[in-house]
Amino acid sequence: MSKLEKKTEEQKTEKKPFDKKAYRSKKYDKKLRLDEWKNKRENYVKHKYKKMQKKEGNVFDVKKIYDEELGEKIDNSKSEPSEASNEVTDDTTAHKPEKKNP
């Protein structure tokens, strides 16, 4: 090894000066610690969700479900167009919440 290589290695291994203010803010600042905790929690939940999805596999084939629904709607509209339209209006009126007067 030449002298030049030794100098570059020494420069790479040189420690940075200790920043006490940054260390104390990282250790004791509640807001910063809360943000770090939220980020860790969010990553944990995302990872767990993806792991669960991978384990279950693709249970629901969305395209297949839509194709089936569209096929049923088309079949209903060809055979009995009046009943299909009545079913939709009946469902929408049946689920309206009642208002209670205090």
Please characterize this protein's 3D structure.
This protein has 102 residues and is an all-alpha fold. 77% of the residues lie in helices and 0% in strands.
Percent range of helical residues: over 70%
C-alpha termini separation: 89 Å
Largest sheet: none
The DSSP helix count reads 5
Rg for CA atoms: 32 Å
Order of helices and strands: HHHHH
SSE topology sketch:
Blueprint: H1 3-13, H2 20-28, H3 30-56, H4 62-79, H5 81-94
In a nutshell, what does this entry contain?
Helix content is 77%, strand content 0%. By secondary structure, it is an all-alpha fold.
What would the keywords be for this entry?
102 residues, mainly alpha, 5 helices, 77% helix
